[in-house]
Amino acid sequence: MRVRNQHPSVGELRKRTFVRRHLRGIVGLAIVSGVILLGAAAPIIAPIDPRAANVSEKLTPPSWLADETVRSGAESETGHFLGTDQLGRDILKRGLHGSRVSLLIGLTTVLISGLVGVSLGLASGYFGGKLDQLMIWLCDVQMSFPFLVLAIAMMVALGGQSLVNVIGVLAITGWVTYFRVVRAETIKLRGREFIEAARAIGCSHWRIALRHILPNAIPACLVLATYQVAQMIIAESSLSFLGMGVPSHIPTWGAMIADGRQYAGSAWWVSTFPGLMLVTTVLGIGFVGDWVRDIIDPTLKIT
Questions:
Q1: Tell me, what DSSP letter sits at residue 7?
Q2: Is there a contact between 282 and 234 (Cβ–Cβ < 8 Å)?
Q3: pTM over 0.70
Q4: How is the chain split into domains, by residue range?
Q5: Residue 147 Cα to chain centre, angstroms
Q6: d(Cα 276, Cα 280) in Å, to the nearest integer?
Q7: How many helices (H) and strands (E) does the chain have?
Q8: Is 61 left (phi over 0), alpha (psi -120 to 50) or beta?
Q9: Mean pLDDT in runs of 10 for the chain (303 residues)?
Q10: The domain over range 37-49+87-300 is classified in CATH as 1.10.287.470
């Protein structure tokens, strides 16, 4: 009897090696892609206004935990898979719509703060002098304040709760990191031989900065941006939790967690499920950040 060869083929070994090496990145991409798709499809999946209250169904437990004998007919027809809050609003629908707000704020603030920080870091590191001293002073002043204290003070100064104000405040507080990274990279490169050669052939300062220095700083900025999306989502949730974020009529994970504080003992699902949504999303983005870091610079990989 012929014995079949049980050894895996080279192709199978390569697939297993790829999956093992990039498992966290694959999981992170799956989580982030799922959150983006669910957020984009929220108006279709949850067409009912997530702000609509139904006090008769307040603090209804999740449908998979509720006792069938005590459910009303309306509840059995509609169902609340993750339960309802103190106003009878469906937690799952509010969570789906809240993901849209979190992703919008996270991506927008990273884009704005990245553009500002990279531009200022490039100019400060390349030209130096008084401009560099001024920018360093501004960074030191801003970093001397705790983030939440500075963000709350700025929200009050800008007029209170507003989606635009939240984006502006987070963008202002987030540019410093990009500035420091790009400035350090620019200072390291501005005296290199290829920069001197570019000056010798008559390249302008901005051409040298944009064509020869900036591309070397982009990889580090991409890794930083990936991590900062998660940081901005957490920051927005923190402000909303404290009542200083987006207006209360807009569903956000932070505000949903705050709504369930006083019901932690009797209706744990009000805060638990929005918290799990926040943690899962941030964890997925963190996995993607690790993956991007390993691809761009494998020497930074921590084993």
A1: S
A2: yes
A3: yes
A4: 37-49+87-300
A5: 16
A6: 6
A7: 13, 0
A8: beta
A9: 54 59 84 91 79 81 65 50 86 89 92 93 88 90 86 83 88 90 88 82 82 85 89 90 85 89 85 92 91 72 44
A10: no
